[in-house]
Design goal:
single chain; 226 residues; alpha+beta; three-stranded antiparallel β-sheet; DNA binding; Topo_IIA-like_dom_sf; isomerase; Topo_IIA_A/C_ab; DNA topoisomerase type IIA domain-containing protein
Length: 226
């Protein structure tokens, strides 16, 4: 990298994902008589499942959730041993909430974390996957505090924020009557702490360079291995 990028360096895991021993079978490109990167890389796991993907093109769109790299390593080992693959659920680094659902219909749901810490007071310490703190505050918390949304009265008496760079922390205070109603309806629904994760539109290029819709992440693992 250029010297101006003073914090740029390879992550230590890079050599594990792309073993140097594989370089002999890769076709390297040349620019100005200098060898640069290979025409394509050959990782040891399907990185599209580790990183996730989302995009749209002419006639096609794709949404691929993230999965745990350690589980992907286990899946590759099963394929090497000719063992059956195990069902996988989406996984996001640093997410402390819960992801529930089933591979049967390809639908999952991520839940944030909310707890009652005393009568009329709740604590939110995690948001659903891909829900950003500032956006959540502006679209959910503030309208509940000032009753600005149409036909929605004020629900929160007060709220405080104690976030860090890596964590979410809201303290919200409700009236006792409103608290009881919120608990009856379900705190996760009232505070919009659920989001859907869909695996029904995983469209990727296959080994032949053709766009193909994959039904499960296990199919992607198999295609990568083959």
């Amino acid at each position: 990298a250029s010297p101006r990028y003073i914090f740029t360096q390879l992550n230590p895991v890079t050599k594990t994902l792309f073993p140097p021993s594989d370089e002999n079978v890769l076709r390297f490109l040349y620019e100005e008589n200098q060898r640069i990167e290979p025409e394509w890389y050959c990782p040891v796991i399907p990185t599209v499942l580790a990183n996730g993907a989302e995009g749209i093109g002419t006639g096609w769109s794709t949404v691929v959730p993230n999965y745990n790299p350690r589980e992907l390593v286990d899946q590759m080992r099963r394929l090497i041993k000719e063992e059956p693959l195990q069902p996988m659920i989406p996984w996001y680094k640093g997410f402390t909430g819960e992801i529930v659902g089933s591979n049967n219909n390809g639908k999952f749901e991520s839940h944030g974390i909310i707890n009652v810490i005393e009568n009329g007071t709740v604590e939110i310490t995690e948001l659903p996957v891909k829900t950003w703190t500032q956006t959540y505050k502006e679209k959910i918390i503030e309208p509940m505090f000032d009753g600005s949304e149409k036909n929605k009265p004020q629900l929160l008496q007060d709220y405080k924020e104690y976030h860090t760079d890596t964590t979410v922390h809201f303290i919200c205070r409700l009236k006792p009557d409103d608290m009881e109603k919120a608990e009856q309806k379900g705190l996760y629904d009232v505070f919009s702490l659920k989001s859907s994760i869909n695996t029904s539109n995983m469209v990727l290029f296959d080994a032949a360079g053709c766009l193909r819709k994959f039904e499960t992440p296990e199919q992607i693992c198999q295609e990568f291995f083959d």
